[in-house]
Write a structure and sequence with these properties.
The complex is a heterodimer. Chain A is 22% helix and 40% strand. Chain A is an alpha+beta fold. Chain A has a domain at 10-23 and 142-274. In chain A, a hairpin with a 2-residue loop joins strand 9 (195-210) and strand 10. In chain A, helix 3 (112-130) packs across helix 4. By secondary structure, chain B is of the alpha+beta class. Chain B folds into 2 domains: 5-46, no CATH class; 74-186, no CATH class. Chain B contains 4 helices and 7 strands; from the N terminus they run E-E-H-H-H-E-E-E-E-E-H. Chain B has a 5-stranded antiparallel sheet with strand order 3-4-5-6-7. In chain B, strands 1-2 form a two-stranded antiparallel ribbon. Classes of the chains: A alpha+beta, B alpha+beta. The A-B interface holds A 2-5, 8, 12-17, 20-21, 23, 25, 27, 88, 90-91, 94, 101, 103, 105, 107-108, 110-111, 139, 141, 143, 145, 147, 187-189, 198, 200, 208-211, 221, 223, 225, 270, 273-276 and B 53, 55-60, 62-64, 66-71, 75-80, 83-84, 86-89, 92, 102, 105-106, 109, 113.
Chain lengths: 277, 188
């Protein structure tokens, strides 16, 4: 039988693709000191062509005394948030430096080649500010948020059109949930492309307001992480030279490939075709 | 009176609570016992997990919320139409048609992405032929243009302008894109 778009219960939320967000992140140990945090603030000026909007973020610590009185302990600049907005006022790209992480978020996915190139440009721009810092990169991660929307009547949604029943990556009860609502959060390590990668997969169904209509949406939030101790030789150095860039690109390409593998094991062959995975 | 004694392992450290610590004045013993036990349970529930779960490392927060891209945006709409063709199985027409190959989908996608880079065009009608070809057809006031992909990283086309000028090419490399003379006809 020709099972086409009209007969599948779910469609990718953005029509051509299901990617709501892809984010690359670096985590640092120990967290940045005040000098490094202040150096990273200059990214606002350096990247303003791509990120016209910028906001400093602050970390506020306080304590509540036994009498319920609030006492401020500290209030410091923690980092910077850079944004590129579209004409409708939504975020297309965002970069965030925090006390122990740097992340680059893409909310307007095109192709991995284009998106990863832009991510590397952003990360390379940070490295010269980290040179001499005592904080080292402890792990690199990639997060994909994929969303699929129910095509017709929410009550008639057939999860088997979206997820393989035999997949290891979602619990079987999801297919039996009486009101189509469920969640499945799991984590595991996997040998992949010479590395041991940590996978965290949070899949859930929920109702969302999509253009004024209550629609059932299934979200797959997949984090893949590569740790320093699992990499032979240097992990990430604070240099924007081409060798370092190639190495970093190789690392995030590996994380991207892991995401593709997991999605192929999770989604039905029809949906894999539909998003041209 | 029963002597209740319990321990809580909270993020503040281990705290022992004994019945004797509690002022029992004007309270029923069982009530106090239940209160102590529920306090202990609350302590356990609020406690940080004493066993570190290595696979539960902290990651990054998503910022996408309920954001949805505009599926009518030209690039997304055309890519969706190409990708929908991948759902047609062999014999989709009941007359021996073949399913489209992934390479053909990829070629059609690459072509349309390049064509839409920095320009808006009239949208083509996108169809699947029985031999697995993906076909783009423009029927414009002064130009009719037919273009096809077979998944060999080339495309072929035939077009005719109202002036009588013809455009024809066989197996043109995808990376070359369309000649500017043709782009000018289909550009909006």
């Amino acid at each position: 039988m020709n099972q086409n778009e009209e007969t599948l219960s779910f469609s990718p939320i953005n029509g051509a693709h299901a990617i709501a967000e892809v984010t690359v992140f670096l985590r640092f140990e120990p967290q940045f000191n005040a000098l490094t945090i202040s150096k990273l603030l200059s990214l606002e000026e350096e990247l303003k062509d791509f990120f016209p909007t910028a906001n400093e973020t602050r970390a506020v610590q306080f304590k509540i005394t036994g009498t319920g009185e609030k006492q401020d302990v500290s209030d410091n600049v923690a980092g910077i948030e850079l944004k590129s907005m579209n004409q409708e006022g939504g975020i297309d790209w965002m970069m965030r430096t925090a006390e122990n992480s740097i992340s680059v978020h893409c909310l307007n996915y095109s192709t991995w080649e284009e998106v990863s190139e832009q991510m590397l440009k952003c990360l390379n721009a940070t490295f010269k500010h980290l040179d001499g810092s005592e904080s080292f990169v402890s792990n690199i991660g990639l997060m994909y948020v994929d969303r699929f929307i129910c095509n017709g009547d929410n009550d008639e949604a057939n999860l088997k059109d979206l997820l393989k029943q035999e997949t290891d990556w979602v619990f079987k009860g999801a297919f039996k949930s009486v009101n189509n609502l469920w969640h499945s959060h799991i984590g595991w390590y996997e040998d992949f492309s010479d590395y041991k990668l940590l996978n965290q997969l949070k899949i859930s169904s929920s109702y969302a307001n999509i253009k004024g209509e209550k629609k059932l949406v299934v979200t797959a939030d997949h984090n893949v992480m590569l740790f320093r101790e699992d990499v032979k030789g240097s992990f990430v150095t604070y240099s924007d030279d081409s060798d370092n860039s190639i190495k970093l690109k190789g690392n995030i390409d590996t994380l991207h490939a892991m995401n593709k593998k997991v999605l192929k094991e999770l989604l039905t062959s029809q949906m894999v075709k539909r998003i041209n995975l | 009176m029963i002597d209740y004694y319990a321990q809580t392992d909270t993020c503040m450290g281990i705290k022992a609570i004994s019945y004797d610590e509690i002022n029992t004045h004007d309270f029923d013993g069982d009530f106090i016992a239940k209160t102590v036990i529920s306090t202990v349970f609350a302590g356990i529930l609020c406690a940080s997990n004493p066993i570190s779960i290595e696979s539960k490392q902290e990651t990054v927060e998503s910022v996408s919320g309920d954001r949805v891209l505009d599926i009518n945006r030209q690039d997304l709409a055309l890519l969706a139409k190409i990708r929908e063709k991948a759902l047609y199985p062999d014999n989709w027409d009941g007359n021996g048609a073949i399913a489209v190959d992934k390479k053909t989908i990829n070629d059609a996608e690459s072509f349309i992405r390049d064509l839409l880079r920095d320009r808006i065009i009239y949208s083509p009608i996108i169809s699947l032929a029985a031999d697995g070809e993906i076909n783009f057809l423009w029927v414009l006031e002064d130009f009719r243009f037919d273009l096809g992909f077979y998944g060999d990283q080339t495309f072929s086309y035939y077009g005719k302008a109202s002036s009588g000028q013809e455009f024809i090419s066989d197996e043109m490399d995808i990376s070359e894109g369309l000649p500017e003379a043709i782009v000018n006809f289909i550009r909006k």
